Amino acid sequence: MVWSTFILLIAILIIWKRMATGEPQDFIFHECVYDQGKYITNSSYQANLDHLLSTFTIHQIDYGFYNFSYGHHHKAYAMGLCRGDITPLACQTCLNNSITLLPKNCPSQIEAIGWYEHCMFRYSDRSFFGLMELSPGFYLTNSFNSSDPLRFTQAVTNLLQRLTAEAALGDSRLKFAIGSVTIPNSPPIYGAVQCTPDMTAHDCTDCLLGAIAQIRENCDGKIGGRIERPSCTLRFDIDPFFQNQPASTPPPLPSNTTISASSPQGDSFSRVLVFIFVPINVVGVVAELLIIIIIILRTRKQGRNSREYLAEDKIENVESLQFDFDTIRIATDGFSDANQLGRGGFGAVYKGQLPNGQSIAVKRLFQGSRQGDEEFKNEIMLVAKLQHRNLVQLLGFCFKQNERLLIYEFVENSSLEKFLFNPIKRESLDWKTRYSIIEGIVRGLVYLHEDSQLRIIHRDLKACNILLDANMNAKISDFGTAKLFLHDQTQGNTRKIIGTFGYMAPEYVWDGCFSVKSDVFSFGVLLLEIVTRQKNNRAQTNEEIAESLVSYAWRNWLSGNALDIIDPCLKGESRIEMVKCIHIGLLCVQENLAKRPTMATVLLMLNSGSINLSTPSKPAFYINRVCSQTSGQSKDYNSTHDPSDMYSISELDPR
């Protein structure tokens, strides 16, 4: 026991000494940026980097920000930032340790970054000076929870937001703020925020607000935590981890000042700091107002995300639609379950609200989703160029490492599926409303197929992909599987069959051939669902047979009993229009795609009372008699049967 106590005291003394001198035992966290590759031994970059590291701290800098480059060809860049309250000696000691340890931890890596207790250090072959960069990063938390987590986290958030406004008003030498707050029945809470001083006030605020938004996700209710990013850092704790005041406060800078320093003679080593001058004697009210204005303006800002993703994906002409990831994270409350609107095969959709009050719907692709880069780019490139009242409007998108987000207008009444197949909500779908929805879907498809600058095949038309706005107007959504055609192109072919069984045309399922007539088939199935209120994959019949809705509708049409399959809720309304819609639906699902009407013709059929409709021929996937539900034995398959009753297609992506 005595020896244990003695050893513990020795350890505490060592730790205290190292904290006092800024000498940590090791990195808290470091990241070797493998995407940037490795440099060749004895290369120009290695020579420039070695020289830069060996001379990095030879110049005295009072406020802890080092920002240097060296070399003409294959130049090396390095940056060091010390916490704003430590002494110059502790800062220099921390950086010297960083310079020694980081290359050892990341041997031959062109780019690396590391964080100590009191400083951050990074280097690369690219210039990151003046750029707001959010990754790589990390967070640490205290293992103990507050006795009142909700109030504690809110107090931390308010404190750090206040400090953010103060730090952003710093100049090109120091952007740092510390403070504390108290709440009932809790020790004081201490906080500190800091940006690299080469950030503008706007970027500093943007970076810190994004980090603050991560507290609820990563540090919620903890009595201490820190979040580190290349461009900014924040920390909070119930223990006072900082000095009462910064080691030295920079005096006001004279206007139009540029600070530069040269290396020893013979070196092409130089440092130039260009800053934005902001008066510091601003009252607290103005600071609070500034942060509110910046929060609103940041939603219009082009997001800055991982450089390598933008280079790889080469998304052209839509960069102005790019959102900052943390803006969307805040808007959706960290993609909380409470805000989830639904899930599909490729991802989940969340409701969110931007700082300007605008409601949005965010499609967040699963990280293991088979809708990868190609489908994601598809959806951006296609939808960004489409403008029609019956299509959901794309507001923007976001890349963040493995994250893929699509930001749409929020459509108040969710999907047609949630109304049509809900026992309570379906009561609000009278025939007038349904007919209007049908017309809206048709007009949207006519635009995609014929009227837009691009000819687009949706390939996944179904009830859950039809959204309804506040006035129950239909809006086609989800273009992740859409295909683009040239205007003189009539069909395409693919080996990857993506869609939903029961809605896919037979030529697409069997041979991978798709065209505008593929969408016509899907629309026909959807139209029958709207009129009958029965799902295509499980029609309700009185016989002990498994039967699709298409088969069920066709069988009743042939027997003259089309009225029997209409949704009972619609009795007493326009039976003529309902039967006409069943007729049109059966025309759209004919096996012979040449006999299917175009969507423009369907629109004409709906709006004309005098046009004569042709007699539909046998639909695709028509099943005369299929598997018995009791015996499971196959009976009398027609020559054209449903492949889903035989086998599954491995490339199929159910939605």
UniProtKB/TrEMBL annotation:
Entries under SUPFAM superfamilies matching the protein: Protein kinase-like (PK-like)
Membrane topology: Single-pass membrane protein
GO MF annotations in UniProt: ATP binding; protein serine/threonine kinase activity
Region annotated Disordered, chain positions: 631-655
InterPro entries found in the cross-reference section: GNK2, GNK2_sf, Kinase-like_dom_sf, Prot_kinase_dom, Protein_kinase_ATP_BS, Ser-Thr/Tyr_kinase_cat_dom, Ser/Thr_kinase_AS
Main location: membrane
Domain of life: Eukaryota
CDD domains noted in UniProt: Gnk2-like, STKc_IRAK
Presence of keyword Magnesium: no
Domain Gnk2-homologous: 27-128, 134-241
Nucleotidyltransferase listed as a keyword: no
An annotated GO BP: response to abscisic acid
Subcellular location, record wording: Membrane
Transmembrane segments: 272-297
Binding site for ATP: K363
Coiled-coil intervals: none
Entry keyword set: ATP-binding, Glycoprotein, Kinase, Membrane, Nucleotide-binding, Receptor, Repeat, Serine/threonine-protein kinase, Signal, Transferase, Transmembrane, Transmembrane helix
One GO CC annotation: plasma membrane
Domain Protein kinase intervals: 335-621
Extent of the signal sequence: 1-22
Entry protein name: Cysteine-rich receptor-like protein kinase 44
Gene: LOC103489206
